[in-house]
Write a structure and sequence with these properties.
Structural class: mainly alpha
Oligomer: single chain
Radius of gyration: 20 Å
Order of helices and strands: HHHHHHHHHHHH
Number of domains: 1
Largest sheet: none
Shape: globular
Length: 343
C-alpha cells in the first residue's frame, strides 16, 4: 500500500510541475529573466528554507550532525541542475518547446534514474531483483512515450506555423547541443537528492519521518538558485532591466509578483510531494525520478488538452499524442508493479 501512496504523491507533485508555467501567461511588461528570477527565489530559496524549518524537528542540530560532504555534493550537483535549466530555456528558442522537452526530459528520465544505483555500485543487485524487468521496461517505455510526445509537439508546431504562415527560426544545429546539455545536467538533480540522503537520514533520526527529504532541498535547490541568479543578473546588466521590479510601464506589478510567486509555489510543490513519494517507494526508491518525469510529461499533455492548446492540430498530430499518452500510462503501470513486487 505504501508504494501506491508513493505513486499518488508523485502524481500530485507532477501536477504542480505540469501547471507551473501557466501563470506566466498573465505576466506582462517584464523581461523573461525578471519573472524567472523572482519565481526562482520563491521555489529554490525561500520555500526550501521555510518548509525545512516547519517540518524538520531540531533543524539546527540536524545540520550540525549531517555529513558536510553530503551537503556539499548536493549543493554543487544542484548548481549543475541550474545550468541545465538555463540551457533548457535557451534551447526552446531554437527547436521549440516540444522537441526540447522530449530530448531533455527523455535523457533526464533514463540517466537520472540509473545514475544513483550505478554510482553506489548496486545496479547489479537491482537488476537481479524480482521487479527489475518491470522497472527497466517502465523506464524504457517511458522514454519512448516522451519521445512520442515530442513528435506530437513538433507536428503541432508545424500545424500552427502552417496556419500562421510563419515557420519561425528553427535551428537544430544550435538547439540539439543545448538539449543534450539540459538533459544530462537536469538528470543530476535526482543524483543531487540521492547524494543528500545522508542528511535526510539524520533528520529521520530526529523524527522528521516522511518529511525527511525536505532538508535536502536546502542544498539542492539553493545550488540551483545560485546559477539561476548569476545568469539572470547577467541578463539584467546586459539589458538594463533592473528597474522592472519597481517600475514597468504597461504592466500590472502586483499581478506580476503574484504570478511569479504562484509559479514558484507550484514548482516547489513538485519537490515537496516528490519527497513524500520517494520515501514510500521502498527498495527501488531510485525509480522515483523516472516516475516523476513520466508523470510530468503525461500530465503536461493532459493539461494542454484540457486548456484546448491542441484544438487547431490535425488528425495525425492527435493520433501521435494519444498514442504517447497510452504508452506513458503503460510505463507508469510497469514501474508501479515493479516496485510493488519488491516492496
Amino acid at each position: 500500500m505504501e508504494v501506491i501512496n508513493g505513486i499518488f504523491f508523485h502524481a500530485v507533485g507532477a501536477s504542480g510541475a505540469a501547471l507551473c508555467y501557466t501563470p506566466q501567461k498573465k505576466v506582462s511588461g517584464w523581461a523573461w529573466h525578471t519573472y524567472w528570477l523572482l519565481q526562482a527565489a520563491v521555489c529554490w530559496l525561500l520555500l526550501p528554507i521555510v518548509v525545512a524549518w516547519l517540518t524538520i524537528p531540531h533543524l539546527s542540530q540536524v545540520l550540525q550532525e549531517a555529513p558536510t560532504s553530503a551537503m556539499q555534493r548536493s549543493f554543487f550537483l544542484g548548481m549543475a541542475y541550474g545550468v541545465g535549466g538555463t540551457a533548457f530555456g535557451i534551447a526552446i528558442r531554437y527547436v521549440g518547446f516540444s522537441l526540447t522537452y522530449a530530448i531533455s526530459v527523455g535523457i533526464s528520465c533514463v540517466l537520472g534514474t540509473l545514475l544513483p544505483p550505478l554510482v553506489r555500485g548496486v545496479l547489479g543487485d537491482v537488476l537481479s531483483a524480482t521487479g527489475a524487468p518491470y522497472l527497466i521496461g517502465g523506464v524504457a517505455l517511458g522514454a519512448v512515450g516522451i519521445a512520442l510526445c515530442g513528435l506530437a509537439g513538433r507536428y503541432k508546431e508545424k500545424d500552427l506555423a502552417a496556419q500562421d504562415n510563419n515557420p519561425g527560426a528553427f535551428s537544430l544545429a544550435k538547439g540539439l547541443p543545448l538539449c543534450l546539455i539540459a538533459g544530462i545536467l537536469s538528470a543530476l538533480y535526482g543524483f543531487s537528492l540521492d547524494q543528500g540522503q545522508p542528511v535526510a537520514d539524520v533528520a529521520a533520526r530526529y523524527g522528521a519521518g516522511h518529511f525527511q527529504g525536505n532538508v535536502i532541498y536546502l542544498f539542492a535547490n539553493t545550488g540551483a538558485f545560485v546559477t539561476t541568479l548569476l545568469y539572470c543578473l547577467y541578463l539584467h546588466l546586459k539589458q538594463k532591466t533592473f528597474a522592472q521590479y519597481a517600475i514597468s510601464p504597461g504592466s500590472n506589478l502586483p499581478l506580476n509578483y503574484a504570478m511569479a510567486a504562484l509559479t514558484g509555489l507550484l514548482w516547489y510543490g513538485q519537490f515537496f510531494f516528490y519527497g513524500l513519494g520517494h520515501v514510500r517507494m521502498g527498495q527501488f526508491s531510485f525509480s522515483s525520478w523516472a516516475i516523476h518525469m513520466i508523470m510530468l510529461v503525461l500530465l503536461s499533455a493532459l493539461a494542454g488538452l484540457i486548456m484546448r492548446e491542441w484544438k487547431l492540430c490535425g488528425p495525425r498530430t492527435m493520433r501521435v499524442l494519444w498514442s504517447a499518452m497510452v504508452v506513458l500510462v503503460a510505463a507508469i503501470l510497469l514501474l508501479t508493479y515493479g516496485n510493488y513486487l519488491d516492496a
